[in-house]
Amino acid sequence: MMNLSRSVALISLFLLPLLSFSFSVDNPTDRRVLVLLDDLSLKSSHSIFFNNLKSRGFDLDFKLADDSKLALQRYGQYLFDGLIIFAPSTERLGGSLDSKSIADFVDSGRDLILSADTSASDLIRGIATECGVDFDEDSSAMVIDHTSFSVSDVDGDHTLIAADDLVKSDVILGKAKIEAPVLFRGVAHSLNPTNNLVFKVLSASPSAYSANPSSKLSSPPQLTGSAISLVSVMQARNNARVVISGSLQLFSDRSGVQKAGSQNQYEKSGNEQFVTELSKWVFHERGHLKAGSLVHHRVGETDEPAIYRIKDDLEFSVEIYEWSGKSWEPYVANDVQVQFYMMSPYVLKTLSADKKGLFHTSFKVPDVYGVFQFKVEYEKLGYTTLSLSKQIPVRPYRHNEYERFIPTAYPYYGACFTTMAGFFVFSFVYLYHK
Amino acid sequence: MVKSTTKDAQDLFHSLRSAYVATPTNLKIIDLYVCFAVFTALIQVAYMALVGSFPFNSFLSGVLSCIGTAVLAVCLRIQVNKENKEFKDLAPERAFADFVLCNLVLHLVIINFLG
């Protein structure tokens, strides 16, 4: 008995380092992903997508959405870094999951891919509304486009659309241009206009609208044109990334698309490339920045002073690295700015980058004294937000640091000394005249 | 009427001049010193009007030294003038000593403020 317990303890000791497989500050790519399905046949119909994820090193855990043993956390620790919900018709999630626990999951900095479809339940709509995305209220409505539909649409009601209005962002969609249009068949959603964290990745063409394809239109549709978003993305302030799609078929294995009215016929639709690149972005393989500390010092010195004087010359630098999926590479950009800020920026300068990820500039402290902050606020589309600041006081001149012997003032110096000499001569003359 | 005013002006000027010639020499020396100090101050003001008030503290210091010493000289003149009933009992040496000490303090302050 003793031997058994000892060997179990030894084995668990060896396993302990392996248990720390999750994303961390040094390695921000997610590792373990929970996939919720409402139908296990999705594993085979979407096999290209899932196999692609597995080949990139992700640990996928497939579960039915109403499995009663579902849990995101155990003993206060999250078991998964990412969540994929391909269960558009599920009314209630099993186990300890509900829309609040999913909201907490995103609040902890973890990522989510959510897909609705033609029969989206209220639960899925509720989760999407939390992220700033509003699905069409009519539950039987689909996106219909009579000019951008796919020629291979068998039903003929133009609900299978070929969309190519992608967001222009290399960090979200990869450097390679997606040539073929992306096939989409599902519900439309619009973005909450007051939410500035959510943006469209794939929008519908101006001729699209959202309506029930099998009944006549009784009134003009509410969602039309480019206001309809097909796939949207949100990057929260804690840098958690959420992808919300209106179609589950977007992720499925499909090939061959020809857009109506265009000559090009593509053997492969752009879906595979689109969802692959999007999943790279959402699981933090791309576009994740890390900044070192802010460094500032006077020109000619290397130490950081505790206080600056007005009209000092100083140099400022910060290091920014970008995660490439495997290692930290130096980040290169020409739009990182630093502010010298006290209630409003007195100095705003663009930092110049060298190839090693060091951004630096130099400027003169303004002629105002008080407590300032060096602020770097970097919010670029698709990249993590950098919000760095460092406080530094600025003092006026000491009484012995003012300019002396100013040439303009020589007449005044001369006048003072002349007066003193005149006083001296006068007192002699006054006393000894006869 | 016009002729008489010019004649009055001339008479006034002559009477003033003859009265002034009669003042004692030490008072005339003090008057000369006051004129010199005020003249120096006026030169400085003209210079500032030309160049601008950049080192304002230097300008103030220069003008104040001239005006201050002029004021002290006027006080000396009042106290030393024998026709002045108010200071009949004040020894002129005491007045001159006050004048010297005040001037020393004035010029100390001026040099400190000159920058």
**Low-confidence regions of chain B:** none
**Tally of individual helices of chain B:** 4
Q: Strand order within the widest sheet of chain A?
A: 2-1-5-6-16-15-13-10
Q: Mind summarizing the main beta sheet of chain B?
A: none
Secondary-structure blueprint of this entry?
The complex is a heterodimer of chains A (434) and B (115).
Chain A: H1 2-19, E1 32-37, H2 42-45, H3 47-55, E2 59-64, E3 73-74, E4 77-78, E5 82-86, H4 99-107, E6 111-115, H5 122-130, E7 133-135, E8 142-145, E9 161-163, E10 165-166, H6 170-173, E11 182-184, E12 189-191, E13 198-203, E14 208-211, E15 229-235, E16 241-245, E17 257-258, E18 265-266, H7 271-282, E19 288-291, E20 295-298, E21 308-309, E22 313-323, E23 328-330, E24 337-342, E25 344-350, E26 352-353, E27 358-364, E28 370-378, E29 386-395, H8 410-432
Parallel strand pairs in A: 1-2, 1-5, 5-6, 6-16, 21-29
Antiparallel strand pairs in A: 3-4, 7-12, 8-14, 9-11, 10-13, 13-15, 15-16, 17-18, 19-22, 20-22, 22-23, 22-27, 24-25, 24-28, 26-27, 28-29
Helix pairs in contact in A: 3-7, 4-5
Chain B: H1 2-21, H2 25-51, H3 56-80, H4 92-113
Helix pairs in contact in B: 2-3, 3-4
